[in-house]
Amino acid sequence: MGKANLYTVKDYQTGEVLAKGTAGELEASGIVPKGYHTSEWAKHENQKRRNRKYAISFEERQPEVKRGEKGRMMSVYTCYNAAGDVIGEGTARELWEAGVFSNDNAAYYTYKEQGGRCIKRGIAKMTCRKEMRKVGQNNARGEKADCAAKKPERPVLRKIKDPTPLDYDVHDLMTYNAIAKKEGRPELTYGYWAAAGKPARP
Questions:
Q1: Residue ranges per domain, the chain?
Q2: For the residues 11-21, what does the mean pLDDT come to?
Q3: How many CB atoms lie within 10 A of CB 59?
Q4: What is the CB-side half-sphere exposure of residue 73 using CA atoms within 13 A?
Q5: 66 pLDDT band (50/70/90 cuts)?
Q6: Cα torsion for 170, 173, 178, 183, to the nearest 10°?
Q7: Which has the closest alpha carbon to 109: 98, 96, 97?
Q8: Are 110 and 103 in contact (CB under 8 A)?
Q9: How far is CA 184 from CA 37, 38, 177, in A?
Q10: pTM, to two decimals
Q11: Cα–Cα–Cα angle for 194, 162, 78, nearest 5°?
Q12: End-to-end Cα spacing for the chain
């Protein structure tokens, strides 16, 4: 059965826990160097013999499947921009709902047929892992059963005909900083805002 890894990053010298989370959570936090997937970085760091900073371990965890639910193995994609920042993570349908892709098959096509790159969407690299997800009995077909679901509405961006996820991020960050400035709070750069989970307001 598919399992997701939960990573623990400790200071190599003191043993202090510095970070803990899934691959996507650690990459979004900034502790994983840009351009690396967490699993690749963990292996590289643990094999260091000199100047080692971290001791990284992981445990395999499987989401609890409650009575009346079924589990299904699904592909979970992580999308990066040219700077190595994570701009989206989830199943093909979740990425479509988040506005990263234009339809619920695009993530699979981009990863398999285009080598994980889509200039139009600002995606420079993609990785893929298998993960067990909960699927209700009335939705055993998973993603395909929900293809008719209504796509979440996104704000209309003036002068941008086909906005990319980065365009929406810039819009959301400008809105956040406008509210922060009005309330006398610190404004954030894109990196700090993304690491904080891309909040809508301070």
A1: 4-61, 69-146, 154-202
A2: 86
A3: 10
A4: 6
A5: low
A6: 180
A7: 96
A8: no
A9: 37, 37, 10
A10: 0.41
A11: 40
A12: 40
pLDDT in tens, 117-168: 988 888 999 999 888 776 643 443 444 434 444 445 566 666 667 777 777 7
Distances (CA, A) of 190 to 37, 90, 181, 199: 20, 21, 16, 11
> Any idea which residue has 């399992």 for tokens?
3
List the alpha helices (DSSP H) in 78-164: 92-97, 106-113
Angle at CA of residue 119, ends 118 and 123, nearest 5°: 55
Q: 73 forms bridges with which residues in the sheet?
A: 132
Question: Which tens digits make up the pLDDT trace of 75-103?
Answer: 889 988 888 888 888 888 888 888 888 88
pLDDT of residue 142: 40
Round the average pLDDT of the chain to a whole number and report it.
77
Sequence-separated (6 or more) residues with CB below 8 Å from residue 56: 7, 8, 9, 10, 41, 42, 45, 46
Distance CA 117, CA 46 (A): 29
- CB neighbours of 57 closer than 8 A, spacing ≥ 6? 7, 8, 10
